[in-house]
Design brief:
Elements lengths: L2 H13 L3 H7 L4 H8 L7 H11 L3 H6 L16 H4 E4 L11 E12 L10 E8 H4 L8 E7 L12 E5 L10 E7 L2 E9 L6 E4 L8 E3 L5 E10 L3
Parallel strand pairs: 2-4
Antiparallel strand pairs: 1-3, 2-3, 4-5, 5-10, 6-7, 6-10, 7-8, 8-9
Helix pairs in contact: 2-3
């Protein structure tokens, strides 16, 4: 993947914003981003630095595709959470407006620490805007669950609500944040494929916790974390 393609991946798949919005955040024009993404213009050092600083991206990843995409935590500031979702009671009735789709929230918690066994009881439903969530995948293959533990701090905190896309049950070449099963425990961890061994590095964002490596067939991926919400 070229540097231009990595910028496009960051903009479309992670930030979910237009070229115009992306350009405005780094004080450029849309045509500049378009030319770089289409590999017609190279990325200048000054523009690379601006992208990394604005979106919290690691320069090593943007330049060469090495390691994690983000520094410490993912960039979430572009999600307009007030207009994105609303919480509705689990009354058993389809009572959200036509522009919303309901995603179940389970009453058990997924661990960012020692791991918990899921209960799988639907506690409430959260209604997300269809136009946003369908760009992320099939809402029928998504679920919401609360986080416990502190191993993913500061990216995730205990009590955060995470949206998991279960159709993304493969490890992206760029790595990412995933819900995984180890034995009978379900955890949220940052995953990265190691080359040339093909092993998976399992990392906690909290520096108090050590990373460890496992063979790919020892890690069951339940889905990718594509959104989180936090109650203040």
């Amino acid at each position: 993947m070229s540097e231009g393609k990595r910028i496009k991946y960051l903009r479309e798949e992670i930030l979910d914003i237009s070229q115009e919005e992306f350009a405005a955040k780094i004080y450029r024009v849309k045509s500049t981003i378009s030319l770089i993404e289409n590999e017609k213009n190279p990325l200048s050092p000054s523009l690379r630095q601006s992208i990394c600083q604005t979106f919290n991206v690691r320069e090593e990843w943007l330049k060469d595709g090495d390691g994690e995409m983000f520094n410490n935590k993912t960039y979430e500031n572009f999600l307009d959470r007030k207009s994105l979702f609303e919480i509705i009671p689990n009354s058993g009735q389809e009572n959200s407006p036509n522009e919303f789709v309901e995603i179940p929230r389970f009453s058990d918690k997924i661990s960012a620490g020692g791991g918990l066994i899921p209960i799988n009881d639907v506690e409430i439903k959260v209604a997300f805007r269809k136009d946003w969530i369908r760009r992320k995948g099939d809402p029928e293959k998504m679920s919401l669950i609360s986080v416990s533990g502190d191993s993913m701090y500061p990216t995730l905190m205990a009590g955060d609500l995470v949206l998991i896309n279960h159709s993304q049950n493969h490890l992206d070449p760029q790595g990412g944040l995933y819900a995984i099963s180890l034995g009978d425990q379900i955890l949220i961890k940052r995953l990265q494929t190691l080359y040339p061994s093909g092993k998976v590095r399992i990392t906690s964002d909290n520096e108090k916790y050590d990373s460890f490596d496992l063979a790919r067939d020892e890690v069951k991926i339940n889905g990718r974390v594509i959104w989180f919400g936090r109650e203040l």
